[in-house]
Amino acid sequence: MNQKDLIVQHHRRSITAAILWPVLIVLSLWIVYWVEIKFRFNFTSFGVYPREMKGLVGIIASPFIHSGIEHLYKNSIPVLVLTASLFYFYKDIAWKTLLYGLILSGLLTWLIGRPSYHIGASGMVYFLASFLFFKGLKSRNYRLIALSLIVVFLYGSLVWGTMPGKPGISWEGHLSGFVAGLVFSFILKSSHFSSLPSPDTPKPKPEKEDEFLKQFDEQGNFRPLDPENEDASGYSQNSTAEDEDQVTYTSDS
What GO molecular function annotation could you give as one example from this UniProt entry (predicted)? Predict the structure, then answer.
């Protein structure tokens, strides 16, 4: 298998992972909500309840629990987009990132949250947006920097959700997710795009020098080649004399 086939195979696997796993994650959110509605359960008590032992289960369970269809819908699209970006650009650390982010953001919410049940996947949305943004800027890889800018364009307004505001909104969960994303963007290392050239990587020199570029000397002066009197180095033998005549003519005038 040649290098081109390996690259194609690599991108196919990345695209498959970037579609399959995000869809399954979002589908799991909807299945939990469907079970809750279908069988008239109330999973709210499985959310994060700050500084109470019973609330620790919510560190893992709370992202799968939503208060209503609108709450679930608003979280589903950003979860799908951001997890797809995570699995495509950081495939080698995607699951580790999700697990660590889930634990740290949930734990921070448990520590700083108001005495109420905190539910919903919005904390993970903030975590993913924060992680992708800061990780991309830190990488100095043009693809990942472009991803950071796209995240800002799509979800830059999320930053206002990290501040106290509308009642019933867990700004503590949002802030915890944002902080967790920032922390893990520096801690977790990814080699998925390490083989791709970064902006400061020197470009390789071509094996065969361009014929047009041969007509410029080291100082950048244009010295056209004479096909009849071209020496071994690729420069005209009488180019110097012609240049001197031209310079003399200019100074006399």
Answer: serine-type endopeptidase activity
